[in-house]
Structure formats: C-alpha cells, structure tokens
Hints:
This protein is α/β, with parallel strands linked by helices. The protein is built from 17 helices and 14 strands. The chain has helices at 13-23, 36-42, 54-61, 72-78, 104-116, 133-144, 164-169, 182-195, 209-240, 244-252, 273-286, 290-317, 345-355, 369-377, 406-410, 430-435, 452-458; strands at residues 3-7, 28-32, 66-69, 81-84, 121-125, 150-154, 174-178, 204-208, 326-330, 359-363, 400-402, 415-418, 442-445, 461-464. It binds uridine-5'-diphosphate-xylopyranose and adenosine-5'-diphosphate. Uridine-5'-diphosphate-xylopyranose binds next to helix 9. Uridine-5'-diphosphate-xylopyranose is lined by residues 157-161, 220, 223, 227, 261-263, 265, 268-270, 272-273, 334-335.
Amino acid sequence: MVKICCIGAGYVGGPTMAVIALKCPSIEVAVVDISKSRIAAWNSDQLPIYEPGLDGVVKQCRGKNLFFSTDVEKHVYEADIVFVSVNTPTKTRGLGAGKAADLTYWESAARMIADVSKSDKIVVEKSTVPVKTAEAIEKILTHNGKGIKFQILSNPEFLAEGTAIEDLFKPDRVLIGGRETPEGQKSIQTLKNVYAHWVPEERILTTNLWSAELSKLAANAFLAQRISSVNAMSALCEATGANVTQVSYAVGTDTRIGPKFLNASVGFGGSCFQKDILNLVYICECNGLPEVAEYWKQVIKINDYQKSRFVNRVVSSMFNTVATKKIAILGFAFKKDTGDTRETPAIDVCKGLLGDKARLSIYDPQVTEDQIQRDLWMNKFDWDHPIHLQPTSPTTEKKVSVVWDAYEATKDADGVCILTEWDEFKTLDYQKVYDNMRKPAFVFDGRNIVDVDKLREIGFIVYSIGKPLDPWLKDMPAVA
Ligand code: UDX
Ligand code: ADP
C-alpha cells in the first residue's frame, strides 16, 4: 500500500489530503501537525476549518485510510510520498523584510524529514514558496540524508477557499514540476498516478521544477491583478457616474477577457494574493528586474488604496467624523463561505475606523470573537505563523464588540459597512434594520450586494463601490 504523509493540517493540507483519501481507497493518508489542538479538532465533529462539503469527505475516510496525528516523525518515516504544506509567512526582519518568504517552518520540516527517513522518498512542495525553494530543500535533504535518495516535486495547490472541495474534485489542472532526470520523471509519474484516480490525464500538466513554482505565483498575481484593475475602474466610475457592474459586465463579455474575477470590492484578501505578489516582487528585485517588480507592486498599492478609499468614504459621509459613533460591520471573513480572516480587507477597514475613534459592532456568521480580537490587535505579517506562536490579544477592548446576529449589530448604529458578501446579507429585512438605527442611517456596501434603489427608498444613504453616488456623497472627498 502506498503511504502518503502531509506535514501541515491547514487550509490546504487538510482538504487536499481528505480528497486524496476519498478518491484513492488503496492509499493510506496521514495528515500531521505540530499543533495538538488543530489535530484534535480534525479528529472531532468540529473540524478546525469551515469549508462546504469537507465534513462529509472527512467522515467517509477518517479512521479508514485517512488519519490525523501529531506523531509527525512516525508518519514521515513510514511514508513513500511526503507533502509539505506548512506556513510560509512574509519575513518581518532582516534581508527581504516585508516581501520575502520566511522559510523557517519549511526548513525545519525538511531537516526533520532528513533526520527520520530510512528509505527513499518523494518530497512534494504544496505550500506556495519562492521560485527555487526546491533547490534549497534538495540541498538540505541530500546533505543530511545519510545516503537516502530524495526526489523533490513542486505540486502547487490552486484550490480557492469556500469552494475547496469542488475545486479538488474537478480541478482546472493539476500541476506537477520535477527534475528533468530519469529519477525526477519517475517521481512525477508516481504522483501523477495518485491524481489519475480521478483527474483526467489531459488535466495533469508536468513541467520542470521552476516552472511549477513560478506558475503558482503567476496565477495568483494575474487573478489579483484583475481585481485591482476593476477596483481602479470603480474609482473612476464613482467620479464619472458610470456603474462598475455594467462596465465589468460589458468588458467581461469579450471572450478574450471572460467574466470571472471582475467583481469590484473593498479589496482582495486571503492568505495568498498579497503574500505571493510580495514574493514575486522580491524575486524580480533580486533578479535585477526593478521595472517588473514595480509593475506587480502596483496591484497591491491599488488594493491598499481601495481599502483606505472605503474608510474615507465612510468618515467623510458621516460629517467627517465617526468618533464615538456606532458602526456595524457585517462580515469579517475575507470572502463568503469561509471562516478564514487572513489578510481580510475587514482588518484594515476596521483599523481605519478605530483610528478615527469609531465604536464597532461586528457580526460574521463564521468568525469567532477571539479570532476577530486577535486580528485587530495583531501586527502586519504576524498572522501567518502557527496559532500557538501568535501573540494573544487583550480580550476586553471596549471599542469593539462581536455579536452573533446582524440585527443586533446594526441596532442603534449610525452606519453599516458590508465587508463580506455572505448570502444572508442580501436578504436581511433592511426596513427593520433602518427602523432600529440612528438617523441619518448609512449603508456602505463594500461588496455590491444590496439593492441600492430599494435601500434608498427605505431612507438609507447608500454608498456602493463603483456605483453612481448618492447626492449626499457627491461633494464629499473620497481621498484623504
Ligand atoms: C486564491 C486563488 O483563487 C487560488 O487559486 C489559490 O490557490 C489561493 O488564492 P482564495 O484566496 O481562497 O484563492 O480566494 P479567491 O476566491 O481567489 O478570492 C481572493 C480575494 O479576492 C477575496 O477577498 C475575494 O473576495 C476577492 N475577490 C475575488 C474580489 O474582490 N473580486 C472578484 O471578482 C473575485
Ligand atoms: P495553509 O493555508 O497553507 O494550509 P495553514 O497556516 O492553514 O496554511 O497551515 C499550516 C499548518 O502547518 C499549521 O497548522 C502549522 O501548525 C503547521 N506546521 C508548521 N510548521 C510545522 C512543522 N514543522 N511540522 C508540522 N506542522 C507544521
């Protein structure tokens, strides 16, 4: 029986391995992690991450050919294929601080693999890493491996959160990069055989190591760039009276452009886009390509601009001050159908409003109070370390309350900010919301999900990203 071990039971490792176990009953899959609480949660009825469909997959395989364990060394020792899916935070200190990836966790995983292995293994990079990481990992393994042969493959994961199970069942492509030697090609084939259990052959692409590593960064950069492009247009729409939804629809019907990833928003979040672009920028700079680096940096600058533009709209509409006013925040996750808050635009928007002394009442159907408090008091870049290494937050912060209901959050509020496109926010009883708010009552829709005309009829003053402005907002500057 082929044995697979995955180091890192996170958003990528957990769902990916669960689907491999489901689709390959003849393979034994162990997912290991240093975090005891995370593993305990994977072994319980309350999985550590919220992902539609994941529960069912885990229930079908757990205890049969899918195991979650903290015994990292035992499972690595027994495995034929070791996936590495650990954190790769952005460096906060030293060379490349604020841009380069911090490979501490990767390096310690590689050293441990070298230490405990007694048989040849295929080691698969699953976490997104800078181009040429495989080369560094290869060196660690071969210099410490006591004659054991390791083949390194890069097999980046393209799943998006919220649709992870769907994406894993029916991937657009699976990408496997390896060495162009006979041993490298043999390892590629071994991994290909795993995916071939359910992925059509023509969707499994094989490349050299560097192409696979770079493709992941490039794909995320292209996707993020589309969002920054439409967000840049949203600012122009507000200035000219055009409607960004109509513009992006018209643009997206060109088959060469296509309709996806053209929704204007308060900004993109998630664990990948910003981190991967910063990484790309750093690699370009290191390779003497400052113009290319500058080009990609702009995608992040527009994203930051979009978030601060939103905060400025809120503050300037409310008579230039939100001090002591109650603002309801609807949605804190970086997108709907996930409880993940990594790099969510809500963090910057909330920090911006708190900077202006607002009182916030936050509601998200999937994010816990502890997570929100932690996010709001954590420093930039601290979020991507294993949870037990993250700073804890002061729990009783008077300016932020977290509630479990949208009506409770909006009660007696002066304004409402919609920051995540949860379906339930589309169908709220906005008349009831309005009746319970202070007047004038404002709605700032950062996801373009409300019916602007209907809300205006009720009596709200409405700002919706990239839509023609409410007369109230016309003379209020959106830029600080
Ligand atoms: C992304 C990539 O899609 C995935 O392939 C990669 O493996 C990991 O990074 P993810 O971060 O999970 O996935 O979510 P994604 O759906 O890409 O959304 C990222 C952010 O962009 C979210 O904050 C989302 O709200 C925002 N977004 C997306 C927009 O603002 N507008 C859009 O049109 C699409
Ligand atoms: P991703 O979104 O890429 O899956 P996560 O942060 O959700 O990232 O998951 C990474 C996991 O890797 C965390 O649960 C962390 O505890 C784990 N981890 C980090 N370093 C190691 C290590 N050396 N050995 C085992 N697990 C590790």
